[in-house]
Amino acid sequence: NVISFLMFLAPATAFYKICKWRNTRGYSGFPYVMTILNCALWVLYGLPIVKPDSILVSTINGIGLGIEIIYTLIFLIFCKDSKTRLKMLGLIFLISSFFAAVTLSTLLKFHDHKKRYTTIGTICIIFNVFMYASPLSIMRKVIREKSVKYMPLYLSVAMFGNGLIWTAYGAIHFDINLVLPNGLGAGLGACQLLLYAVYYRTTKWGDDDQKPAVEMDDKPGVGLNDNGYPRPLGAGHDGV
After folding, report:
1. Phi, psi of 220 (to 5 degrees)
2. What is the pLDDT of residues 137-187, one digit of tens each?
């Protein structure tokens, strides 16, 4: 939970810059919206009515859910692209409807814990994999530009540590729903650290604060932003 909490906080520096610039610039807000759904699903998974004795999963994802909502609100406030803002609002509506449908259908249709946590756990695995895989876009950008400017080291370390510790936790509890996605997350985190080591010296850091506040290419992603956030536990979760 402590490691996952730190991973959820990792993007705080990026949002500090966004507030300072009063502009989202090259960052993408879509990963944070998807992480909201990811956290909400894991909160549901860890509840006693679904998976008994998994309160640690619910507590950290509940905290992560609140943090991700704050990130998303900040992004919506300072996003200068009206089309991007409308797309994000539409996505928020869709994920809210999807979560409500999953919750109601599962709890009303299944009346034993095994069927409930198997169904919700499978859905959690799918979205957790999306979240952990989302850095693939930023990893391609790193290789293409030979720059790790938008893939902070602390975020890669957090992703690796988070995936590793939740994989171990899932193994101890014989919970395949935690082992599979977080094992993948640990592997991708290790790949990010390797890329960071390879392209650190070729990165032109510059001074972001001196750049004009103009909108940059803002491509939607599923799970992380151009700053590398998985948003989890990480970001996130239960694997966050």
Report:
1. -60, 150
2. 778 888 888 888 777 787 788 889 999 999 999 999 899 999 999 999 899
Q: Is cis: bond before 190, omega within 30 of 0?
A: no
